């Protein structure tokens, strides 16, 4: 397996890029450690697939380097990078049995048949497909076909990295959880460096130890699932991760304090810098409480959604929608309420970027 380092990486599909807007990938510097589980997360068009194709060798970047264990592989073709890739749609041979599909990557490299059998049986046991080994792949269900496709990527022990490109897109929703859990289990057992590309936050957060969140060709935050949820470095991260996402509310900053609709809102701590960028308050729905006559921002309830585990309340304050997640009783549509923002979770952002530091009240 390999440590993967991206250094000063940029890519443009234009032959003569003249500004940042011409680049599908803005400047990227990051390192993925050997044996880690990583995810590239972001909406369609954010640059995930471009970055994956650059790592795999299908694209040569306009600028920068790709290093595998400090070896520069930027100009090497895919065959020379020693990688395995699992795609959206299962890549298997329908006329072959499950055993022969799993064996193919090893036989193609001339491995001894005893080693082939040992590896195939080990992967089959991990995937729980031992009873399917003599079945033709054409007769498998879509989820089992994708299992075999994953197994083909994992059967070799000499690869530098295993890359998954939206591997659960075609899987029925009720089977996705099972395959996500299986993939996480496989990583813990084989200890391979894995990169998982997806637009689905649940897939990324349940699989990866570290998640790279991308927006418009730029890496906006790298962190653990807990870090991304609890302290978004950018309003995009707060909005994209969570259901519903973080409330992002326009505000004015005066004397180091934030005012939403003229009402002072206590922040987690001091405001960084003195820039004139557009200021916004960020607070996750989980940290908004509602009362009928307490202190806080005046609002009117517009909608209450009961989703079983909790209720999602949508209120309007100063012409802005504010979501709150509540357990137990919730107000009714049309009720006048007060919204209280938990101070330690209320953050200031300027031009989208985090601009407050911890250290406020309880």
TrEMBL record:
<protein>
    <submittedName>
        <fullName>ABC transporter ATP-binding protein</fullName>
    </submittedName>
</protein>
<dbReference type="Pfam" id="PF17912">
    <property type="entry name" value="OB_MalK"/>
</dbReference>
<feature type="domain" description="ABC transporter">
    <location>
        <begin position="4"/>
        <end position="241"/>
    </location>
</feature>
<dbReference type="InterPro" id="IPR008995">
    <property type="entry name" value="Mo/tungstate-bd_C_term_dom"/>
</dbReference>
<dbReference type="InterPro" id="IPR003439">
    <property type="entry name" value="ABC_transporter-like_ATP-bd"/>
</dbReference>
<dbReference type="InterPro" id="IPR012340">
    <property type="entry name" value="NA-bd_OB-fold"/>
</dbReference>
<comment type="similarity">
    <text>Belongs to the ABC transporter superfamily.</text>
</comment>
<dbReference type="InterPro" id="IPR015853">
    <property type="entry name" value="ABC_transpr_FbpC"/>
</dbReference>
<keyword id="KW-1003">Cell membrane</keyword>
<dbReference type="InterPro" id="IPR003593">
    <property type="entry name" value="AAA+_ATPase"/>
</dbReference>
<dbReference type="GO" id="GO:0005524">
    <property type="term" value="F:ATP binding"/>
</dbReference>
<keyword id="KW-0472">Membrane</keyword>
<dbReference type="InterPro" id="IPR047641">
    <property type="entry name" value="ABC_transpr_MalK/UgpC-like"/>
</dbReference>
<keyword id="KW-0547">Nucleotide-binding</keyword>
<keyword id="KW-0067">ATP-binding</keyword>
<dbReference type="Pfam" id="PF00005">
    <property type="entry name" value="ABC_tran"/>
</dbReference>
<keyword id="KW-0813">Transport</keyword>
<dbReference type="InterPro" id="IPR027417">
    <property type="entry name" value="P-loop_NTPase"/>
</dbReference>
<dbReference type="InterPro" id="IPR040582">
    <property type="entry name" value="OB_MalK-like"/>
</dbReference>
